Amino acid sequence: MAEEILKVDHLNKYYGDWQALHDINFSLNKGEVVTLLGPSGSGKSTLIRTLNGLEPFRSGEIYFHGTKVDLSPKEWQKLRQKIGMVFQSYDLFPNLTVLENILLAPTKVQKRPREEVKKEALELLERVHLTEQAHAYPRELSGGQKQRIAIVRALAMHPELMLFDEVTASLDPEMVRGVLEIIKELADRDHMTMIIVTHEMNFAAKIADKVLFLEDGHILEETAGQEFFDHPQTKRAAEFLSSMEF
Ligand SMILES: Nc1ncnc2c1ncn2[C@@H]1O[C@H](COP(=O)(O)OP(=O)(O)OP(=O)(O)O)[C@@H](O)[C@H]1O
């Protein structure tokens, strides 16, 4: 039977008095890839940030491996070690080399032996074709390279779930493919469980097991990946798709 990693139950989120997310319900099984699609301002980033404890919410529950997450900062800190997140901005530490950026959290937070983590970091760097940049500083890298490092840095923590929030949105077009290929490989080769916010529709169509289509903070539809692109259930999703470039 499929193993459930995450479940979101009747989640409501406000910014001040204004409700940004309305009664969000969905679950995610091990190895599953969910993409969040929807117009600008529909709440995709808000939702993905809420799942990582970066945004507080007013009501509802989040379950991780069937256990209700207690919402204390300490609990989120623990959980964030199992949930990797990559953002649109790369957020690498500018004063640390690529390798030091990758080693920092596994050695300091997870207290794993430096040599073990280093060996693994070098393997991961090889996998994303950045071995030669191990001792470079972030300022010496292109946007696409920085984003690949940000992915490697998250993977070095051995996450059970990866969240990607528009990770190619700031990249020049020629950099986008290399980053998306790595994410696709994580799905195909590693069967990584992932939630992805993206405006890259061809990529979403290729990678999504399931699409959550959001509008105005509501999930308007939840549809199997290819089915969403071939036969969206709602008129609004059909309009959205026809307005997007493929
Ligand atoms: N910190 C904040 N304070 C107040 N309102 C916010 C905040 N962050 C986001 N919002 C609002 O919440 C709504 C959802 O924003 P969000 O960034 O989640 O949308 P999105 O679907 O990710 O959009 P995009 O595709 O443009 O990135 C928007 O109306 C936005 O203005």
TrEMBL record:
Superkingdom to which the source organism belongs: Bacteria
Listed GO MF terms: ABC-type amino acid transporter activity; ATP binding; ATP hydrolysis activity
Domain ABC transporter: 6-241
SUPFAM superfamilies documented for this protein: P-loop containing nucleoside triphosphate hydrolases
EC number(s) given by UniProt: 3.6.3.-
Presence of the UniProt keyword Transmembrane in the record: no
Enzymatic class: hydrolase
Keywords (A to Z) from UniProt: ATP-binding, Hydrolase, Nucleotide-binding, Transport
InterPro entries recorded: AAA+_ATPase, ABC_ATPase_HisP-typ, ABC_transporter-like_ATP-bd, ABC_transporter-like_CS, MetN_ABC_transporter-like, P-loop_NTPase
SMART domains per the UniProt record, alphabetical: AAA (SM00382)
Family classification: Belongs to the ABC transporter superfamily.
Protein name, entry field: Glutamine ABC transporter, ATP-binding protein GlnQ
Lineage: Bacteria, Bacillati, Bacillota, Bacilli, Lactobacillales
